[in-house]
Amino acid sequence: MLIPLVLHHTGALPIVVRDLRVVVLGEPAMSTLRWERTRPRLRGENDADLPATFAVPGRSVTQIFAEFDSVPPGFQNRDREIRVEAQLGRRVRWHHVVTFVLHASAAIHPEQYLEYRNEKPSEG
After folding, report:
1. φ, ψ for residue 77 (rounded to 5)?
2. Which of 15, 22, 25, 80 lies at a CB distance of 3.0 to 4.6 Å from 33, suitable for a disulfide?
3. Using an 8 Å Cβ cutoff, are 17 and 6 in contact?
């Protein structure tokens, strides 16, 4: 699962992001997806970096295309609420970044590496 993230840091000093994860809410069997790779853009299957610590400068934004564990079969069949969390600085605890509904049912060909808008499919 590839998720484009924009991290907005309002403080004056930089903040270090050590790790990222996705928590699938309401799904205990597959509740946490680990950060596996970072891509420079949405498209381009062959150019990926391993997850690495990065800094978000003070009073700025940083864009990252984070790829998380592959999800088990059947994940794409219905919409799920997910939460992205980050470990910051030297802290061990996880910090909430964003929570949203992942409209997994909008993926027409989930077995292929394609990007999809996270919109609720229109009925009709």
Report:
1. -70, -20
2. 22
3. no
Summarised one tens digit per residue, pLDDT across range 2-20 is: 899 999 999 999 999 999 9
Chain segment 41-85, per-residue pLDDT in tens: 877 667 889 999 999 999 999 999 999 987 666 666 678 889 999
* pLDDT tier at 108, thresholds 50, 70, 90: low
Query: If we measure between CA atoms, which residue out of 21, 16, 64 comes closest to residue 40?
Result: 64
Query: Structure tokens of 115?
Result: 């990007």
Nearest alpha carbon to residue 13 among 59, 49, 63? 59
Q: Which structure tokens are listed for 42?
A: 């949405």
The answer to whether residues 85 and 58 touch, using CB atoms and an 8 Å cutoff, is no
Residue in 63, 22, 64, 59 with CA at minimum distance from that of residue 39: 64
Residue written as token pair 């150019």? 47
The helix (run of H) or strand (run of E) holding residue 8 is: strand 2-9
Cα–Cα nearest to 16, from 96, 89, 91, 90:
89
